[in-house]
Amino acid sequence: MTGHCPETKFLARIDPVMRRLIREVGPFTLTPHVRRSPFESLARAIANQQLHEKAADSILRRFVALFPARRFPQPADLLAMNEQTIRGAGFSQAKVAALRDLAAKTLDGTVPTGRDIKRLEDDAIVERLVAVRGVGRWTVEMLLIFQLGRPDVLPVDDFGVRNGFRIAYGRRAMPTPNEVLRYGERWRPYRTAAAWYLWRAADRAKEAKRA
Predict the structure, then answer these.
(1) pTM of the model
(2) Could you confirm whether 101 is annotated as catalytic?
(3) Quick one: pLDDT at residue 34?
(4) What is the DSSP string of the chain?
(5) 158 & 141 share domain
């Protein structure tokens, strides 16, 4: 594994299946969106819930266009906007309620600023952010991985992670979240990289089916 990063060197050393997967997929190339605020990351996550990525992107473009600067709004801007206007961008009533609660909890400090969140442990971030309407543990784990770049997050409720595990480890049945969690203890402190490779395993299987 010459030339690989600490994550892949560690995973390849302690897990033969990961070693093979790393060899097949190549380097670990996760690049977090570090410039997004927790508010923006969670608002985008709410928009994407239960929607195809292209549909969510279209709604978000219309949403941003509602604001004069045509940049992602601040929490106070969102709260000042008429609810029906926000719905007109394509959000459901439930998502509008979730966005407004996110904005209110950002202003009252429940949702930390980008600077403050960096000082918090993963579990403390989960505990604070799941207080927001429409935000569950999985959504916070995506923020930990894709915004904060935390190295030891294993989102075991994620279908792609469990399906990638099933494929990579030759399981006939879909593993339960607890099975992946237990097995994944050996991947500490680099469970984020392991999850990334499991996603790649699931993606490769999809591509093989289409070919």
Answers:
(1) 0.89
(2) no
(3) 79
(4) -TT--HHHHHHHHH-HHHHHHHHHH-S------TTS-HHHHHHHHHHHTTS-HHHHHHHHHHHHHTSTT-SPPPHHHHHHS-HHHHHHTT--HHHHHHHHHHHHHHHTTSS--HHHHTTS-HHHHHHHHTTSTT--HHHHHHHHHHTS--SS---TT-HHHHHHHHHHTT-SSPPPHHHHHHHHGGGTT-HHHHHHHHHHHHHHHHHHHH-
(5) no
